Amino acid sequence: MSRFPSIYRLAQVALDAIAAVLSIFLAFWVRFEGTLPAQYWPLVEGILLVGVPARLLSQWGFGAYRQIWRLFSLRDFWTLFQAGSFYSLLLVLSTRLLLLKFIDLPVLPLGVAVMDWGFCLAGMTLIRFLRSWQTSPSRSSKHPPSTHAKRLLLLGAGRAGAQIVRETRQNDRLDFWVVGFLDDDPSKLGRQVEGVKVLGKISQLTTWAVRLAVDEVLITMPSASSDRIQQVVNLAKLEGIAIKIVPPMQELLSDRSLARQIRDIRLEDLLGRPEVVLDFSEQLSSDLPAATEQIQNHVVLVTGAGGTIGSELCRQLALLRPRQLILLGRGENSIFHIDQELRTTFPALDLVPVIADIRNPERMADIFRRYCPEVVFHAAAHKHVPLMELNPTEAIENNAIASAQLAMLADKIGVKTFVLISTDKAVAPSSFMGLSKRLAELLVSGVAQHSQTRFLSVRFGNVLGSRGSVIPIFESQIAKGGPVTVTDPTMTRYFMTTPEAARLVLQSLAVGKTGQTLVLDMGQPMRIYMLAEQLIRLKGYIPGQDIEIHVTGIRPGEKLHESLVDENEELHITPHPRLQCLVKRQLEYLPTAATLEKIDRILESSDLEALWHLF
């Protein structure tokens, strides 16, 4: 088996050698109209003995024999074109500039050189194309691979759809039969993609699904909007048809099979706006290093590294290749899991899992002195509003006091950048959880007033799918047959995906200035009640019929509507079009040391209402 690749390449070289020999004879034959003058025979012999091996060596150097011929593509043709052009240019120069001085041979006619280049390129391309065509799945039968094959209707006759057709034919384990395409592009109607006909428009989904006895519908439009996906979901549910989707472009992995990435439609597909993809490598201004430059080859520490935001942040940080990544958290199980995941995915990354409580100043000081982090992402926090209403001192100590102590420690150690993860609940807070995060923002801003460290706060709304958030709760309730509980039918929240939240945090490095709070353009808030309805439909049920929705009333500390901006703040643009910074109409921060003393006295007296009068 180990000898097969070398034999395969020798066969490729041999076929190309035949094409090269035939092309030079054909070029001379055409140029001299079938009769080759005697004086050119020595030149032909020289090209055959020296030129053909030189051509093959040129193609080897350009990587033409690292290609897989049955997957021959335009990029492979470009490699062949470059190698052939380089050889032909070399051939003309050598015969005209070198051989005339040292060897008594006639000049190679330019017409012969040009025709040899064209004939050889065409011949070698044809050989590769024939190999690709021979093994092409499109040559396979149009009949289903087995009597049990699922009948698949594809929505979107583009590249993704074409690739799905090829993979279903090429992989026997994918027991699907693509019975047709639907596409709204009028120019595609009636035409074929990989031998499969485009039958009609997507609005005709139910008609064609019934006519063709479709088992599943697959959305093969990676750039489809959330509204479009919602329309398709509604149409498919009318006939009880299972529906899946090819992920959005930012999720697709170029080195993996597209078929393996097919998944059920998730709620984030219906978010109501395109998922924001932030460019880490973009140099936004001459004096502002991009996010990648601030992470690569630097020591980075993440608190709360086992949480939803913290763990996703670690995954994306790992892609930016820090010199060392410190995973700090209080829960050993969550830190163990993210540490093992990253070690598997990024074996070369220097990872340090640390179990510690951010409320322990001595332990945190020892960690900071030992590892000397240059960038700190502070994601550790208590986040559940009703739970913190019952445990307010825990919220204040963990979210506010510990954050301020970490900021002062970062200032003392000389951390370059400290990023606080905040929340929209810090805006006009109505709960102790929101109050604790508001105090954290103000206290960290207080440290920033007299520090060389850059302090940033990043504020965003609810994260879809985070632990303990509304989506997992709804999913659990649906799995049990309902009812799904919603606190108020008019309640709204801003939502973002976990990758979006982590990207926002990272991109703050590229655009944020010390003391600033940054927010993402999150579009319009969504009604929680509507979210519950959509999730029920995605699970294949009818809201109010199969699964009931019960309204339970607002819980302590909750607001009907959240905002990302306080009345004392206004949004300003940043160098990134989807990121905005908050500018306060009046300077607002709390002197850190003095305020911490006040908070300690308030907690000792148990007069927690006094906390609301600190700012």
Beta-strand content bin: 15-25%
For the record, give the distance between the C-alpha atoms at the N and C termini, rounded to a whole number: 74 Å
Q: Kindly state the percentage of residues in helix.
A: 40-55%
List the strand order in the largest sheet: 10-9-8-11-12-13-18-22-21
Output the CATH topology of the largest domain.
Rossmann fold
Mean pLDDT: 81
CATH level 4 superfamily of the largest domain: NAD(P)-binding Rossmann-like Domain
Shape: extended
Unreliable spans: 1-5, 137-142, 249-259, 280-288
Give me the count of strands: 22
Write up this protein.
The protein is an alpha/beta fold and 615 residues long. It has three domains: 4-135, no CATH class; 140-265, 3-Layer(aba) Sandwich (Rossmann fold), CATH 3.40.50.720; 291-462 and 496-521 and 564-613, Rossmann fold. The chain contains 18 helices and 22 strands. It has helices spanning 4-31, 41-62, 74-102, 110-134, 159-170, 205-211, 226-238, 291-295, 308-319, 332-345, 361-371, 385-390, 392-413, 432-448, 470-479, 498-511, 528-538, 592-605; strands at 150-155, 176-182, 192-193, 196-200, 216-219, 242-245, 263-264, 299-303, 324-329, 351-355, 375-378, 417-423, 454-460, 462-463, 484-486, 492-493, 495-496, 517-520, 526-527, 549-551, 569-573, 579-584. A hairpin with a 2-residue loop joins strand 3 and strand 4. Helix 13 (392-413) packs antiparallel against helix 18 (592-605). The chain starts with a helix and ends in a 10-residue tail after the last helix. The model is unreliable at 1-5, 137-142, 249-259 and 280-288 (pLDDT under 50).
